[in-house]
Specification:
This protein has about 140 residues and is α+β, with helices and mostly antiparallel strands. The chain has one domain: Thiol Ester Dehydrase, Chain A. Helix content is about 25%, strand content about 40%. It is built from three helices and six strands, in the order βααβββββα. Strands 1, 2, 3, 4, 5 and 6 form a six-stranded antiparallel beta sheet that branches. The longest helix is centred in the N-terminal third of the chain and has 18 residues.
Length: about 140
């Protein structure tokens, strides 16, 4: 079973350069927000992580820019967990422009689950592993 999360939003004025295209670093903010929203939708929101003293951090990210997004474009991000190990999760992403559904960006990120008090990787909770281990596309 694939647990895929989808979110839609418009490109905002402050996210584009003087040529009207989304700044490269903004795409990474989109990806991070999609991961946070996907986790929240699965029952693991910011409050859950605060209560457990943990946080996810990006260890490595690869972004393939295929086509630019511009001012007022409506975007859709799809994300899913492709692999989950003891302390790491591999998440994949696609960003589309609507309504033509043109694929603009493909990305993947390795996330590490961190104990905030020790600032050290810690085991991903069993309930999260069970929920996301059946993921993948």
């Amino acid at each position: 079973m694939t647990i895929e999360y989808t979110m839609r939003f418009p490109v905002r004025r402050y996210e584009v350069d003087r040529f009207g295209f989304v700044h490269d670093h903004v795409y990474q903010q989109y990806l991070e927000e999609a991961a946070i929203q996907a986790s929240t939708a699965a029952g693991f929101g910011p409050q859950w992580y605060d209560e457990h003293g943990t946080v996810w951090v990006v260890r490595e990210i690869t972004v393939e820019y295929l086509h630019p997004a511009g001012m007022n474009d409506e975007l859709e991000i799809r994300t899913w967990v492709a692999d989950m190990q003891r302390v790491r999760s591999h998440r994949e992403y696609e960003i589309y422009r609507l309504p033509d559904r043109r694929l603009l960006v493909r990305a993947d990120a390795d996330w590490v689950y961190i104990d905030r008090a020790r600032l050290w990787p810690t085991r991903i909770p069993a309930e999260a592993r069970m929920l996301f281990s059946a993921s993948g596309r």
